[in-house]
Amino acid sequence: MTIEFNQGSLDEAIESGKPVLVDFWAEWCGPCRMVGPIVNELSADYEGKAVVGKVDVDSNKDVAAKYGIRNIPTILFFKDGKMVDKIVGAAAKSAFSEKLDSLL
Predict the structure, then answer these.
(1) Is 29 a catalytic residue?
(2) What CATH code is assigned to 3-103?
(3) Within the chain, what is the greatest distance between any pair of CA atoms?
(4) pTM above 0.85, yes or no
(5) Secondary structure of residue 14 in the 3-state scheme
(6) 2, 57, 64, 82: least surrounded by Cβ within 10 Å?
(7) In sequence order, what DSSP letters do the residues of 43-104 get, joined into one string?
(8) Catalytic residue at 101?
C-alpha cells in the first residue's frame, strides 16, 4: 500500500533504515496522474524491502519546500537518512525500479 506522507511520517520513513521512494505530486498535474499507478505498483513490488509513498504538494507545502521541489512529479530516493537520487518528470517503471534496486 502506498503511504501518504506528511512531514512527520516522511521523516520517520527516511530514518527507518530502508530505502525510501517519495513521489511529490498534485491532483491537477497530468504527468503526476501517469506516475501515480506506477508508484502504487512499486509499493506492492517492494513491500518489506523499501518504503514507497507520496506527498501531495498542495496539502504539504512545507514538505515540498524543505526538499526544494519546484516541478512535479518529482520522485526522490533516500538511503541511510540522506537523499541519494531523484527523477523529475514522468518516467517508465523500469527507471524507478533500477534506482530502488541499486539502493537495496
Answers:
(1) yes
(2) 3.40.30.10
(3) 33
(4) yes
(5) helix
(6) 82
(7) HHHTTTT-EEEEEETTT-HHHHHHTT--SSSEEEEEETTEEEEEEES---HHHHHHHHHHH-
(8) no
CA distance 61 to 69: 9
Helix (H/G/I), strand (E/B), else coil: 4: strand
Active site residue: 32, 52, 63, 64, which one? 32
- List the chain pLDDT tens, one digit each, 104 residues: 789 999 899 999 999 999 999 999 999 999 999 999 999 999 999 999 999 999 999 999 999 999 999 999 999 999 999 999 999 999 999 999 999 999 99
Catalytic residue among 21, 22, 29, 55: 29
Distance CA 96, CA 91 (A): 8
Dist CA 90 CA 99 (whole Å): 14
